[in-house]
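Each record in this resource describes a single protein on a pair of labelled lines. The shape at a given residue is found from the number at the same position. The record below illustrates this layout:

***
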Amino acid sequence: MNTMKAVRLFEFGGPEKLRYGDHPMPDVGPTDVLVKVLATSVSRWDVKYRTGEVHEFYGKSTGHHGGIHGRRTFPMPMQLGRDVAGEVAAVGASVTTLAPGDRVLGVTNPENTLSLASIRGLGNLSGGIDLPGHTMFGGYAQFVSRPESYWIKVRPDLDLDQGAAAMWPCATAHRIIANRLNVRMNDNVLITGAAGGMGTATMALAKLAGATVIATTRHPGKAASLKRWGADIVVDSGRDDAVKTIRAATGGEGRRRGGIFQRSSLILFIFFGSLDFTSGGYTNRFGAFWLVWGISTCKRHKKPRPGPSIAAPLSVR
């Protein structure tokens, strides 16, 4: 078999720009694993890559195709699909942990273990590495080939559709809740933009950690579904009394005391979605809370006002 079917992007635009066709089978190096794709996902990242929004956001300082600091610029043509689940079809001569027939999930955010960021415990920010669907071909194909360390072996009965859909949001949520924030029993966790995939995954893990979850949404019609996903309190962020409602829910915790944040008097603030760095945006409306993690598209203004203290680096995934 010398060719395979794949969907690739050669120019920016609508869904019609995604081209389905025959392409050469990917090469398999000594440390690579060739996987037959049985499931992949469509994320908001894919949509923004296709329309050119990703390139526009990063490209102002790095050239036409943009790029994240320390990583290659976003290439074109591109094969999208951050998540992959499938079955190992072949392995390179130096591969030791996987064999043909194994079922695997693709690692969505592999790290370069030799980078300074990884040594500091921030492997998700490490440079010198390619990310699937970012700077290397993603899962929109019959087969993909990646290094051995980019795959996780899973049990044979795992639902690969679920695995492909959950890998990116759940892995990100776990890093936020367990590794970066160490959420504990009775913590208050405020999650904005909570109705998306990462928001719902973060809610579920925060509840498992014993936290009280406050979710905000601009769409009141989503309140019932957010409750089902684990939100203890749902706040309509478009209402003038949104901050007052959150304050009431936390008993006033989260206030800045003498300019120093203490764990006994804080609310963990995790934001997803879009933020507006103006006096009317989340940053200043919720500015008395401790901002610990953000994954967002941000509207930038000439004179952004200071936001809350940052206890973990911002990361646009």
